[in-house]
Amino acid sequence: MLQNYFPILLFVIVGLLVGVGPILLGWLVAPNRPDPEKLSPYECGFEAFEDARMKFDVRYYLVAILFILFDLEITFLFPWAVVLKELGAFGFGVMVEFIAVLTLGFVYMWKKGALEWE
Amino acid sequence: MSFPTVVFYVLSAILIFAGLRVITAKNPVHAALYLVLAFFTSAGHWLLLESEFLAISLVLVYVGAVMVLFLFVVMMLDINFEKLREGFWKNAPLAGTVGLIMVGEMVLILMSPEASLGSYKGAAPLAADASNIRELGRLIYTTYLWPFELAAVVLLVGMVAAIALTMRKRKDTKFVNPGDQVVVRRDDRVRLVKMAAVKRSEPVAEAESADQQA
């Protein structure tokens, strides 16, 4: 069973090496002689006025949380799809009810305008 | 030491390091990214336990969706973290006490004879073609039907709560509604007014020509 996943482990290790290797190599080999002028922030020739990090609009949060909810819904569909033939009509009805409850929420948010990006 | 054991220890080391960095990193965005690393290594642990569906859903749901949400929340908050850190030593004794109590409870549970972790042999290895997701499907949609349908209701409540808490109509945006744009007719926008012809008086014409010259 676990042997089936050995290629994935190799893939992860090679991916890490390809990603981290060049950065490490550059850090070790490249000349590094910083001075205050080199390290000073450059923004069209004048000093930065304020922190570049600013607050996000709260509506991004709404989009993200709606995405999570439907992501979870999809997750429940995978095991169901695999065993649907064994479960038969009963299993189909179970999922219809599950989707119906979430569709209720979907209609609610559609009507409420949560999907509008004004 | 077998190869899976080596992988387990490597993953555990990464997981503990990532977990420590989550709470010690100064930049909250870095902390969130270390949490992503912790989720990835936990997914590796799930794979070692031969529950691949949970591993994949951990990566898909937590790394793909929940961490995006966390990053949004971190970026939305306008918190001065230097100010938050000022009270560190003042609150340290209380936090340490709570932490010690939690560790003590955990040790008591794990060391108790009822838990019998010492004599636990671990699950028998599955056959190469055993399907984890098939077993899950057989259980969720029959035995655990009730919790499954409850999950739908919990998701619905979450959806409604998120909309109720964060839906704000902004007054200052100039939003175009394409539907309204399409259905608009000529009569809604243009009004033809009948009026008698008027002879233009001379001084106005002069002023206009002066404007054009200027």
UniProtKB/TrEMBL annotation, chain A:
It is a multi-pass membrane protein. The chain crosses the membrane at residues 6-30, 60-83, 89-110. Its EC number is 7.1.1.-. One of its GO terms (cellular component) is NADH dehydrogenase complex. Pfam families: Oxidored_q4. InterPro entries: NAD(P)H_OxRDtase_bac/plastid, NADH_UbQ/plastoQ_OxRdtase_su3, NDAH_ubi_oxred_su3_sf. Its main location: membrane. It comes from the Bacteria. It is found in: Cell membrane; Membrane. Keywords: Cell membrane, Membrane, NAD, Quinone, Translocase, Transmembrane, Transmembrane helix, Transport, Ubiquinone. It catalyses: a quinone + NADH + 5 H(+)(in) = a quinol + NAD(+) + 4 H(+)(out). One of its GO terms (molecular function) is NADH dehydrogenase (quinone) (non-electrogenic) activity. NDH-1 shuttles electrons from NADH, via FMN and iron-sulfur (Fe-S) centers, to quinones in the respiratory chain. The immediate electron acceptor for the enzyme in this species is believed to be ubiquinone. Couples the redox reaction to proton translocation (for every two electrons transferred, four hydrogen ions are translocated across the cytoplasmic membrane), and thus conserves the redox energy in a proton gradient. NDH-1 is composed of 14 different subunits. Subunits NuoA, H, J, K, L, M, N constitute the membrane sector of the complex. Belongs to the complex I subunit 3 family. HAMAP family: NDH1_NuoA (MF_01394). This is NADH-quinone oxidoreductase subunit A. The lineage of its organism: Bacteria, Pseudomonadati, Pseudomonadota, Betaproteobacteria, Neisseriales.
From TrEMBL, chain B:
Its EC number is 7.1.1.-. It is a multi-pass membrane protein. Keywords: Cell membrane, Membrane, NAD, Quinone, Transmembrane, Transmembrane helix, Ubiquinone. It catalyses: a quinone + NADH + 5 H(+)(in) = a quinol + NAD(+) + 4 H(+)(out). The chain crosses the membrane at residues 6-24, 31-48, 54-79, 91-111, 144-165. One of its GO terms (molecular function) is quinone binding. It is found in: Cell membrane. Its main location: membrane. The keyword Transmembrane applies. GO terms for cellular component: plasma membrane. Belongs to the complex I subunit 6 family. NDH-1 shuttles electrons from NADH, via FMN and iron-sulfur (Fe-S) centers, to quinones in the respiratory chain. Couples the redox reaction to proton translocation (for every two electrons transferred, four hydrogen ions are translocated across the cytoplasmic membrane), and thus conserves the redox energy in a proton gradient. This is NADH-quinone oxidoreductase subunit J. It comes from Pseudogulbenkiania ferrooxidans 2002.
